[in-house]
Amino acid sequence: MRAQQLYSVAILMSFGLVSFNSVYAQSIERHVFGVAGGDTSSGSTSLSFSIGETMIGTERQTTAALTQGFEQPEQLALGMIEPKILTGAKVYPNPAIDLINLSFNTVSETELTVSTLDALGRQVEAPITIQANGTALRSFDVSNLASGIYFLIITDRNQTRAGEFMFQKI
Description:
The chain is mainly β. About 10% of the residues lie in helices and about 45% in strands. The protein has one helix and eleven strands.
């Protein structure tokens, strides 16, 4: 009986030494623990997906793209970060009934386009062009919009997204 206990202790101790000798530092590998997934492409467009990974988003500019999540392209090219066109931008009141105000400051004289999109990304109003230099305040009539969630998307002359604001119409 005593020999069996010593044998058990010896096995446990050797297991402990082996497991402690194989400890490595942490590293983040490119692994997605999903239940399924795949890749598909058509022409110059490709789609890679995984079922089980949380929803991710991609923000694209003319020369760069930022994708969240572990499923990343093999090559990631970084570009210059453009200076902010807008500062101190805000949309009020939120929620809105008849009018929504957009106030902002621009760092230089610029032409901006403001588009109103619904929650599905459809354009619901004709885009409005604003010439701005410094502090600006613009009011938009939203009385003809149905109740729901909308986005004001602000782009510059190069179609670079300068701002995106969500508001609720009640």
